[in-house]
Amino acid sequence: MQQIYLDNNATTPMLPAVAEAMAEAYAEGYANPASQHQCGQRARRVLEEAREEITTMLGGRTSGMKADRLVFTSGGTESNNLALRGFSGGREGNLIVSSIEHPSIASVAEQLAREGRDVRTLTVSQDGVTQIDSLHHLLDDQTRIVSVILGNNETGVLQPVREIAAICQERDVPMHTDAVQAVGKIPVDFGTLGVSALSLSAHKFHGPQGIGGLLQRHDATPDPLFFGGFQQNGIRPGTEPIVLAIGMLTALRIWKLNATDREERLKGLRDQLEQQLLCEGGNIVVNGADATRLPHTTNVSFVGLDRQAILMALDVAGVACSTGSACASGSSEPSPVLLNMGLAADVVEGSIRISLGAATTAEQVDKAIHRILAVCGRLRRSETC
Q1: At a CB cut-off of 8 Å and minimum separation 6, what does 98 contact?
Q2: pLDDT digit string (tens) for 246-274?
Q3: Which positions are catalytic?
Q4: I need a surface site. Which of 80, 116, 216, 229 has the fewest CB within 10 A?
Q5: pLDDT tens digits, 294-333
Q6: How much is the pTM?
Q7: What does residue 268 show for φ and ψ, rounded to 5 degrees?
Q8: What structural domains does the chain harbor?
Q9: Quick count: other Cβ atoms within 10 Å of Cβ 371?
């Protein structure tokens, strides 16, 4: 049976053109870009050209005294850790996160709380949208960092980051957004958002695994997590991955060339999947359906069924999806995101995440719908026996 891959929020398959660009870069045999000789200088030019073009495509400023800075990291998790720990530092004060953050923010916040830091949580509506009013009650002169995800990794619900950033700017408080699921899926403009820092990860938009970035405003500098080198202004020392940077750049270039068409196509496929499931599948709920969402993500609850049973049965039936973040996939606990949205227990227990990618076809979605309906039909019948 042909497997249908619908877990693109966990990782996306690398595009052939990206692999080709990286193979060519490996064949060039670039030297260490930190080396002072001519071979190192050549590698440095290639790396900095990639950094500048990526920054520009993300809406960052690349020239003048107020130029923004892109720090390459190993991926979204490191970028989020660097932002939350780096901006809160060891200083007195509090930090604020939303209740629907990815584990690479939520778990860091929990660890900081265990270390004695004052961690405050923004509430969300039942649609999964951060409630701005709660920010006004939590924000004060001792707030060191506010972090709110741009597009939720489980529901796809977009958050009012621009509005929250404006409030933070008024209070001179740095704001970070985890844009890992948004970059390469929808237009993301760093300058327009008004945030101090933004996280991204290449393997979420058909680039290579092992590289991400933290884009920082000119006046926002986090404390480093690592020490031992001068690279990237000491914020993230270590040899910079020039070939991976070329892979990230290539993936973003491909997305930009097809951005509007890809977004519309994925939204159409997502809507088709949801509508057919709702029409034919019985007691089904699409979580966050009334909010503005990312085009490629849907969180569907088959009310009354067990999400783990659905996931395993779908895997056998040739459909790869998930019950939530891949970083929490080893846990059998219900999704904190859905629980914090205030959803009923049977809705949370029956929820799975389906996420589409650039290579997902209408034929695959149609086959997946039939397989999902068949699997859930069998599970419902077995529940009544």
Answers
A1: 121, 122, 124, 130, 147, 148, 149, 159
A2: 999 999 999 999 999 999 999 999 999 99
A3: 327
A4: 116
A5: 999 999 999 999 999 999 999 999 999 999 765 555 556 8
A6: 0.95
A7: -65, -40
A8: 4-12+258-384 (3.90.1150.10), 16-257 (3.40.640.10)
A9: 18
